[in-house]
Each structure stands twice: as structure tokens, then as C-alpha cells.
């Protein structure tokens, strides 16, 4: 299967092919959307889902930002930065919705900058160090496939705000998955060295994939996406041997604390600062 065939197949149903960063568009995804939590919806449960998804996005965006000045080519540096901005935009909207839903009125900064690592609910795969380019590509392929499958379902959520955020995010996540798939095939079916690194990256990512499948019931869609790409790349399917614990329960690796210290340092040092 060629790179183009993988790209075209994964792109089915996402012909819009949006490639701009989430925060740079002129369209407000929440324009005209009633922000009142509808009757019958568990507001605390809604807030929890928004925080989980926002934490995944924020931590992933911070890791992607580490590729700035380090990516193999300038074009890839820009692409990874824009993917990170997409995720950062999703995190901002989701944090804001969480503050509305839980009744605290907390804004996005309160969630992002003034919680400790144990309070974060992101999956652990997002917080692992970047490693080499192959590792980041394998992680991006897995996380974007998983997040896209979940956002496609959330686009019909009874909460209109979460549904609008998800519908907007689907367009970006489809591109994230396509970008990762193209590189996965290129590296897996490339040189002996690139193939070796992709195999090693798969082994490093595999223990953390099981956690994703316990979070949301999208296993079939995600496995189908990964199998399609790995087959085209001449790579084996990852063997899922999940590690105990879950980031959803506040159980994280030792890598999250230092990452958040870097992310939150300025805000905590100058909590009252404004632009």
C-alpha cells in the first residue's frame, strides 16, 4: 500500500482537510451556542470529561513544542508546532467549559497553571519525553487516532458546547492522524535504520496503549487505523501489554512533574501578571 493510498483512505469523510492552527482561524466554534448546561446532564461528569480531554491536549502540545528548533526539517518543525497549537486551542475551550460546568467559574489559566501533577488527568502516553522523531510519530499516530475516534462520537454529545468543540476538533485531528500516518509509512518502509527506530518506538509506546482503551470505547476504530498504517509501513502491530495504573486516576510517570514545572513556572512566579 502506498503512502498516498494510506493518506487517501484515512482522509475519507474528512475532505475539508483543515491544516491551519486551531487558534488562528476566524470562525468561533462556539458562536451562537447556548452555554447553559442542559437539564438532565451530570454537570460534574461533564466537567470531568472536559478536564481529561483538555489535560491530554495541553500536555501533548507542550511535548510537541519541544520539537521547535529540533525537528529534522523546517517544514516539519512548522507542522508539529501547528499541531501543538491545534491541541492547545482545544485545551483552552475544554478548560473553559469545565469551569462553566462545575460551577467554580475557573478559567483556562487556573486549570493549566495552578494545579499540581497529581491533579492532572491526562493519559500517561502524552507525558512521556519526546525521544527521537520516530517515537514522536508513533505516539502522534496513536494519540490522534484515539482522540479523533472519540471526538467523532462527542460531536453528537447532548451538551451543545462540548459537541461544538468536538466537531471543530475533528477536522484538525483528521490532519494530525494523516500527518503521522504519512511519516510512519515513510520511516517504516524507508532505510534499515529508520525501520529499526520505528520498531523500537512501537515497543516504547505499546505499554501505554492499553490505558487508552480503558478510557473510551473506541478500540475497534483505533486498531483498524493503526493496522492499516503499520501494514503499509511493513511494521508489526503493537502488542498491547498495559501497565498498571492510569493517568485518569492521577497516577503519572516521573516525567509529568518536570514538564509542568517548565510549563507553569512563569505563571506561578508572577500570578497577578497581565498583558
Features of this protein?
275 residues, mainly alpha, 11 helices, 62% helix, globular, Phenylacetate-CoA oxygenase subunit PaaC
Layout of helices and strands, plus pairs?
Elements: H1 3-10, H2 43-65, H3 74-101, H4 108-113, H5 124-127, H6 133-154, H7 160-188, H8 192-205, H9 209-215, H10 219-233, H11 256-269
Helix pairs in contact: 1-7, 2-3, 3-7, 6-7, 6-8, 6-10, 7-10
Description:
InterPro entries: Aromatic_CoA_ox/epox, PaaA_PaaC, PaaC. Pfam families: PaaA_PaaC. This is Phenylacetate-CoA oxygenase subunit PaaC. The chain has helices at residues 3-10, 43-65, 74-101, 108-113, 124-127, 133-154, 160-188, 192-205, 209-215, 219-233, 256-269. The chain has 275 residues and is an all-alpha fold. The longest helix is centred in the middle third of the chain and has 29 residues, at 160-188. The chain starts with a helix and ends in a 6-residue tail after the last helix.
Q: TL;DR of this structure?
A:
The protein has 275 residues and is mainly alpha-helical. The protein contains 11 helices and no strands.
Q: Which structural category do the helix and sheet elements fall into?
A: mainly alpha
Helix-strand topology string: HHHHHHHHHHH
What gap, in angstroms, lies between the N and C termini? Answer: 51 Å
**Largest beta-sheet details:** none
Amino acid at each position: 500500500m502506498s503512502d498516498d493510498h494510506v493518506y487517501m483512505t484515512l482522509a475519507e469523510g474528512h475532505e475539508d482537510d483543515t491544516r491551519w492552527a486551531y487558534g488562528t482561524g476566524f470562525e468561533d466554534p462556539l458562536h451562537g451556542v447556548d452555554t447553559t448546561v442542559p437539564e438532565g446532564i451530570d454537570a460534574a461528569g461533564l466537567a470531568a470529561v472536559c478536564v481529561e480531554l483538555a489535560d491530554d491536549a495541553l500536555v501533548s502540545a507542550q511535548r510537541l513544542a519541544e520539537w521547535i528548533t529540533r525537528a529534522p526539517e523546517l517544514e516539519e518543525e512548522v507542522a508539529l508546532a501547528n499541531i501543538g497549537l491545534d491541541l492547545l486551542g482545544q485545551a483552552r475551550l475544554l478548560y473553559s467549559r469545565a469551569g462553566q460546568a462545575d460551577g467554580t467559574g475557573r478559567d483556562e489559566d487556573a486549570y493549566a497553571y495552578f494545579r499540581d501533577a497529581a491533579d492532572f488527568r491526562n493519559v500517561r502516553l502524552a507525558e512521556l519525553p519526546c525521544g527521537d522523531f520516530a517515537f514522536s510519530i508513533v505516539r502522534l499516530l496513536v494519540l490522534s487516532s484515539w482522540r479523533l475516534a472519540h471526538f467523532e462520537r462527542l460531536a453528537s454529545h447532548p451538551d451543545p458546547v462540548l459537541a461544538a468543540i468536538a466537531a471543530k476538533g475533528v477536522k484538525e485531528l483528521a490532519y494530525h492522524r494523516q500527518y503521522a500516518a504519512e511519516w510512519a509509512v515513510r520511516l517504516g518502509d524507508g532505510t534499515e535504520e529508520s525501520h529499526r527506530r520505528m520498531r523500537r518506538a512501537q515497543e516504547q509506546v505499546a505499554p501505554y496503549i492499553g490505558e487508552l482503551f480503558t478510557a473510551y470505547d473506541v478500540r475497534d476504530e483505533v486498531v483498524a487505523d493503526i493496522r492499516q498504517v503499520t501494514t503499509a509501513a511493513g511494521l508489526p502491530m503493537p502488542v498491547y501489554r498495559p501497565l498498571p495504573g492510569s493517568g485518569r486516576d492521577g497516577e503519572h510517570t516521573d516525567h509529568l512533574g518536570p514538564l509542568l514545572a517548565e510549563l507553569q513556572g512563569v505563571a506561578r512566579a508572577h500570578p497577578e501578571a497581565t498583558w
